[in-house]
């Protein structure tokens, strides 16, 4: 591809849905709650280690709460996506940002997924699988209807795109 239709690295235009912030925050809080509860129960049951187990529970809780307060808003500012007739563009990450492009001719499958928390927040994830060794591109935090429409659009675009002979 040359000229106007060239696939090049550039910032994707679309932000994820604002509800993704609450979804990410909930994921972090649930992930934090499991070890905190286990440590607290063990601390209540094991007298000789009570202090250290409860201290560890408090440290994990503080770290998890701090991450839940900080990272989701940052991820919202960083995560971007875009689909054109030529490619899928995704930018993700917090400390290490990753920009990926999947030309339509390289896309093998398109999946739309909605986990339990995503369903609660009416969100969805579109996964675009290519032959790349880096793995699939994931566009997380989309409105569930947009995710379904995007999955259908990508499927139609990839079916209409001739395969890449290179």
TrEMBL record:
Pfam families linked to this entry: bPH_2
Domain annotation YdbS-like PH: ranges: 77-151
Transmembrane as UniProt keyword: yes
Transmembrane segments: 28-46, 52-76
UniProt keyword terms in alphabetical order: Membrane, Transmembrane, Transmembrane helix
Protein name per its UniProtKB record: PH domain-containing protein
Species annotation: Streptomyces narbonensis
Upper classification of the organism: Bacteria, Bacillati, Actinomycetota, Actinomycetes, Kitasatosporales
């Amino acid at each position: 591809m040359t000229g106007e239709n060239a696939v090049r690295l550039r910032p994707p235009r679309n932000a994820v849905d604002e509800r993704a912030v609450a979804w990410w925050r909930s994921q972090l809080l649930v992930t934090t709650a499991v070890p905190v509860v286990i440590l607290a129960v063990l601390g209540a049951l094991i007298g000789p280690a009570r202090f250290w187990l409860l201290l560890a529970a408090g440290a994990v809780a503080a770290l998890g709460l701090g991450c839940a307060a900080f990272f989701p808003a940052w991820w919202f500012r960083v995560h971007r996506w875009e689909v054109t007739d030529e490619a899928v563009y995704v930018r993700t990450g917090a400390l290490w940002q990753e920009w990926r492009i999947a030309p339509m001719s390289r896309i093998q499958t398109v999946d739309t997924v909605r986990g339990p928390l995503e369903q609660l927040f009416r969100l969805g994830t579109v996964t675009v699988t290519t032959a790349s060794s880096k793995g699939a591109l994931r566009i997380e935090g989309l409105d569930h209807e947009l995710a379904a429409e995007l999955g259908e659009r990508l499927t139609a675009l990839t079916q209409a795109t001739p395969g890449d002979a290179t």
